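Morning run. Coffee first, then this:
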Amino acid sequence: MDVVIGMAKSGRRAYGFDDISIVPSRRTRNPDDVDISWEIDAYRFELPMMASAMDSVVSPATAIAIGRIGGLAVLNLEGLWCRYEDPHPALEEIAALPSDKATRRMQDLYRAPIHSDLMQQRVAEISASGVVTAAALTPQSVERYADVVLGSGLDILVIQGTVVSAEHVSSQGKPLDLYAFIAGLDIPVIVGGCASYAGAIHLMRTGAAGVLVGVGPGAACTTRGVLGIGVPQATAIADAAAARIRYLDETGRYVHVIADGGMRSGGDIAKAIACGADSVMLGSPLAAASEAPGLGAHWGMATFHPTLPRGARVMVGRLGSLEEVLVGPAHENDGRQNLFGGLRVALATTGYSNLKSFQKAEVMVAPATRTEGKELQHAQRVGMG
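And here it is:
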């Protein structure tokens, strides 16, 4: 039901993860009997996750480590790893910058040219390890650089921007034709972001294997403030899941919905799946891992935009190893470690055996779940406080 904003404007009420809660059902299960694996195209992963294509999160080394743990990491082919032979000095400088100088200096560092040979080298390094290799390009650059890396061992291509549409209009030249481009590739393509039913179904119709859902929810993203654009994630994911159902009915083809951003804990990941996501894309939770190349700092793909930055460098600290963050064991009680152990127990506690069935879990609007009875935790800033 629309809410009246003013006499000339009304709008839907939308919900984020903090606004909802998953309802227990009549059945529970042993967590060891729960399957949280994820399959997309020909690839199967023990964990339903992608590491976001951010320089603070994914290096060739962390991509390999995440792949061996059971996830999929996406390397940013337009980031520092493909601009500098040795990006570590730049990474160290960014982590040490004072907040008031970080954005301007990052713009300088990211003005270094992208090198095609480094793209090939980074992709080949990940591929040689035997893990599934994924990398991201923006819509503006994908036609220029895709052929560079396709022969280097790339398994999955991600085309990623703040908002990606199948109907881009431009007077500055011929825009990317996603339909023709994806049809001409022999590897699966994941495209995003989007945050609406219409946006999702149009991206699905391009032939994409998956769509990224999320505009502005990330810890380092400022898009919602800079542009005024965004949809809270619970609603955005549920709308994209509805588009997936319609597209499946139309074509018999299943396209994966990947929740991109806004998840801080295992509980948030569980809510994303319960709202209809098949998998999640994580940034800041992994930037806090001890192996992360950001060295305790985190920033996104639009933070260093040369004319309109839409992100901030934020400090996330060091929480534990990648393995501890993803699969445990947890040594804290706030849900930020053993993220997928949390997801597994959420399925078990509500009686579901796999991700597809968990998408049918009952969800209710329950903004009090983070505060009800938690006065001491909030006062002492522990647990959920």
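The chain is about 35% helix and 15% strand. Good start to the day.
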